[in-house]
Design a protein that fits this description.
Layout (H helix, E strand, L loop, with lengths): L11 H8 L3 H11 L3 H15 L1 H8 L3 H7 L8 H10 L11
């Protein structure tokens, strides 16, 4: 019986985290998800995970537990918390004319 080769694939979450460390990529990822509330919260969580939730929380001056709660599936961050979180991700919110 032949020995099986170990898989050399990289988990998607690892790839996603590497890609989302780039601020330009992270901002585009969030921009594309903003039309759906659940997708947007999930995208915020992905970016925070890529940058390190603890680091994002510290830069946002928010407790890490609060950030984790905001970004959970049941999360519903207040506007002030969202703005602080975005600042912690070194991003900002921009409002544009709708179509």
């Amino acid at each position: 019986m032949k020995a099986r080769k170990k898989s050399s694939t990289i988990p998607w979450s690892t790839v996603r985290n590497r890609v989302l460390q780039d601020p330009e990529t992270a901002s585009e990822y969030l921009r594309l998800s903003v039309d759906d509330e659940e997708d947007f919260i999930a995208a915020l969580r992905h970016v925070a995970e890529a940058q390190g939730i603890g680091k994002v929380a510290a830069r946002a001056k928010l407790p890490r537990e609060s950030v984790s709660r905001m970004l959970s599936r049941k999360g519903n961050p207040r506007l002030g918390s969202l703005m602080a979180l975005l600042r912690g991700m070194k991003l900002s919110l921009r409002i544009e004319e709708g179509h």
